[in-house]
Amino acid sequence: MDENIDSLDRKILAELMSDARIPLLEVARKLKVAPGTVNARHARLKRLGFIRGARLEVDLGKLGFGLMVLVGIRVQLAHQHKEVVRALERHPEVLEAHYTTGGYSLLVKVVARDIQDLHAFLADKLQSISGVHSTETFLVLDSPIARSFALPGISKGAQKRRETIVISESR
Q: Is the pTM of this model over 0.85?
């Protein structure tokens, strides 16, 4: 936990996590503090890296990307994972990449229009990346839990909405 934020900062974060599009003036009204205080705290939270940005989630299926998979990637040599990640960044089908422990070096979330599109991605793009030793693909059938993080004891609405504020981890 970072010593640089207090309970008001956490309440501001909770409101923003509940609705990333809420005007700061509305946050100030809900928390019963001056708008200038919320604006200053918001700017400080951004500067300190607690707020990294806001994003909108869309239904990729409605945009024609009806297939989602998780791909476990084994990298030939451990030091090659950064090179592989840089290559993956060039492919818009790749939504997330996670450096992991266990049987895979990387776990990657990928979307495709259909099975043929996925096959083309795997065969023509992913397998041609230098450093990729092997892959295993898992078809996502359903995502019954898909939520943003809620600050314990403060935010109740953040788990129900799709607009999210990403909070950086303390390291």
A: no
Q: What is the pLDDT of residues 102-131, one digit of tens each?
A: 999 999 999 999 999 999 999 999 999 999
Q: Domain residue spans in the chain?
A: 7-55, 60-139
Contact 149, 20 (CB under 8 A): no
60-139 CATH, one of 3.40.1130.10, 1.25.40.10, 3.30.70.920, 3.40.50.720: 3.30.70.920
Tokens of 141: 């059938």
CA atoms within 13 A on the CB side of 15: 19
- Alpha-carbon distance of 114 to 93, in angstroms, equals 12
Cβ contact 102:46 at 8 Å: no
Give the residue from 120, 136, 135 showing the smallest Cα distance to 84: 135
The residues pairing with 139 across neighbouring beta strands, listed in sequence order, are 69
* CATH 1.10.10.10 given to domain 7-55: yes
Q: Which residues contact 79 (CB under 8 A, 6 or more apart)?
A: none
Chain-centroid distance, C-alpha 57 = 10
Residue 124's SS3 state is helix
